[in-house]
Amino acid sequence: xxxxxxxxxxxxxxxxxxxxxxxxxxxxxxxxxxxxxxxxxxxxxxxxxxxxxxxxxxxxxxxxxxxxxxxxxxxxxxxxxxxxxxxxxxxxxxxxxxxxxxxxxxxxxxxxxxxxxxxxxxxxxxxxxxxxxxxxxxxxxxxxxxxxxxxxxxxxxxxxxxxxxxxxxxxxxxxxxxxxxxxxxxxxxxxxxxxxxxxxxxxxxxxxxxxxxxxxxxxxxxxxxxxxxxxxxxxxxxxxxxxxxxxxxxxxxxxxxxxxxxxxxxxxx
Length: 269
What we know:
26% of the residues lie in helices and 32% in strands. It has helices at residues 60-75, 145-160, 213-216, 234-268; strands at 10-13, 16-18, 26-29, 84-89, 104-110, 114-115, 123-129, 132-141, 163-168, 177-189, 196-207, 217-228. Helix 2 packs across helix 4 (234-268). The strands form two sheets. Strands 3, 4, 5, 6, 7, 8, 9, 10, 11 and 12 form a ten-stranded mixed sheet that branches. A two-stranded antiparallel ribbon has the order 1-2. By secondary structure, it is of the alpha/beta class. It contains four helices and twelve strands, in the order E-E-E-H-E-E-E-E-E-H-E-E-E-H-E-H. The model is unreliable at 1-11 and 13-62 (pLDDT under 50). Residues 89-252 form the ABC-type transport auxiliary lipoprotein component domain. It comes from Desulfobacca acetoxidans.
């Protein structure tokens, strides 16, 4: 098996390397453990024969020296490479600018978004064909996609100043409208054409003041964005995904505002 040379570049496989250009956080991870005779010291030799318990003509020092050699060999396993470094990435974009609209006298709460099982992991996912996906082994998001999307949407809604209050999922607070959703796509798309960051969200806005469950659903919509990657690296994916969520967030905020405004106007009329 080929050896990894110990660089911070990501290995999709041991024969394909994609080096990142920026690292937000490095965490050493020790790989490999003793194999072969190192695990059989004092029990079986390479041929599977039991090691004799009798002293050799040289005595105990030889046996001790042999054990030291085996332990040294085990410590130098995995081609002697240093601990791998895990590069962690976050999204980075300014809160999207919204049209000058009058703030609404109501609060909204953003619930934690669910994530498709194939994407519910911190490792960056890439899709090479419609039926094949993989992950960057040494390049990861700072947290799972569901938390990233939820946190940034909450921040953007609060920064828009279009609502009386915006509460995150992990804070107490009374809000009539709740925003729920799920992450259907959050990955690198390598299929023919320029590589892209693929983002797909499904969003549901609920009015908790309604007793009838059917009346609680104000709207349910899907948002999809494919943003070209300027560089074919993990950092390029992080940059493109940031731009994709910025676009999706702007559309979601505007749709939520209009829907809430319409529901309040309907009651007032």
